[in-house]
Amino acid sequence: MTPQKDIDIAIVGGGIAGLTLAIALHHRGVPFTLYEQAPAFGEIGAGVSFTPSAVQAMKCCHDGIYAAFEKVCTRNEWESKQKLWFDYHDGYNTPPGHSFPISNSLGQRGVHRAEFLDQLVNLIPQHVARFNKVLTSISDAANGKLVMEFLDGTTAEADAIIGCDGIKSRVRQELFPTSNPSYSHKYAYRGLIPMNKAIEAVGNENAQNACMYMGPGGHVLTFPVKSGTVMNVVAFHTSEEEWEDSERNVRTATRADALHDFAGYGEDVNKILQLMDDKLNVWAIFDLYDNPVPSFYQGRVCISGDAAHATSPHHGAGAGFCIEDSAILAALLSHESVNSPADIELAFAVFDECRRERGQWLVESSRFIGDCYEWRAEGVGSDFSKIENEINARNSIISDVDVVEMCQQAKGTLSRKCSSLTREISANM
Ligand SMILES: Cc1cc2nc3c(=O)[nH]c(=O)nc-3n(C[C@H](O)[C@H](O)[C@H](O)COP(=O)(O)OP(=O)(O)OC[C@H]3O[C@@H](n4cnc5c(N)ncnc54)[C@H](O)[C@@H]3O)c2cc1C
């Protein structure tokens, strides 16, 4: 759509948060430029699943995002499991103890990240993106604009900046230098297993439908991706040791390391790990639990997605919350009263008001639920009925929301703030 406002917004970062925001703004006629450090849009080839609220948020941003999701998502294979989020199993004891299903209105919908992103990129024109732009600093220009400096020595100006630059956000560091991510003491082996091999190992039901295998100090989740041809595996392990290099959250390991971490686990977990590649990547799980930001904005600079509320992945909702952020930001920035840099600052204040509590709750709750899966949460332990209750109660906070209503409420709050500001200005004249 042709830009309809005389404002100039910079989005820094083109992951799920940045791209969904870009698409939502583009289709509402809000002018922006997206600066991405990589030479092209891209994502790692792992799976990500989405909750019902994430799907609502996709539709709020732009129907094309939802269409892209529908095009590439994989569901549970079995008809009887279409509303299943995960089957939670005892992954430790032999024979396995109790299992329970957790369902929601959407069931399990996983995408291969790279495939999803490839679809999203088609929803914005190429000319809005600048690549190889590593943001290094933000400062004020004499003309009232903000100036971004990039590693390649170039600069660019904007009326406002939205940092969608992920967990290690440079934009967040500029605003709140002490709000750094910390290690959750969990790390994850990730892998993709051809579905025929996965079926041989754990049978049709568990390979083709989402499963979570729980045990003391570890949990393994699996779900089908790539139209059911591949089983995505993420095997989490809790370790008291520090992560040796906080600058690099991925290190290489071997299948033998994974098997060592899950020694004593049941047959299914063992068979799954045996099918992982010999050389594996291990991802340290960092989040903003210890050092939450005091605000999602300062002046005309705002943070969204993982930059604002990076969470451990145990609710499978981090990316979904990025898209919720984009839906709210797009609703606010396209509001009829947002026409100047000062109006954008007001919109950012409303964004902070509407999103911070929910975003930071996710970070806290995700840590707790991750410990529930590993039988180490205080007051829950390995009591399966308590674990089930905790999952249901917390999933409901994530999913049983009305994102359209959230956007309406945000716009209502902005309208009220604009009117009271106008009244204040007239009273002072
Ligand atoms: C193991 C694991 C499993 C997960 N599973 C799920 C799941 O099932 N469901 C779910 O909803 N979420 C899941 N998540 C969380 C989800 O992946 C994140 O919440 C989401 O991808 C964050 O998106 P983002 O756009 O905010 O950040 P990112 O994806 O990190 O994107 C940031 C972008 O900014 C760019 N950038 C960074 N710094 C700069 C700079 N200085 N200048 C310019 N550009 C810059 C980067 O190159 C990148 O393109 C999982 C996370 C992990 C670690």
Automatic annotation (TrEMBL):
GO terms for biological process: secondary metabolite biosynthetic process. Its cofactor is FAD. GO terms for molecular function: FAD binding; monooxygenase activity. Residues 7-335 form the FAD-binding domain. The keyword Plastid does not apply. Keywords: FAD, Flavoprotein, Monooxygenase, Oxidoreductase. It comes from the Eukaryota. Belongs to the paxM FAD-dependent monooxygenase family. This is FAD-binding domain-containing protein. The lineage of its organism: Eukaryota, Fungi, Dikarya, Ascomycota, Pezizomycotina.
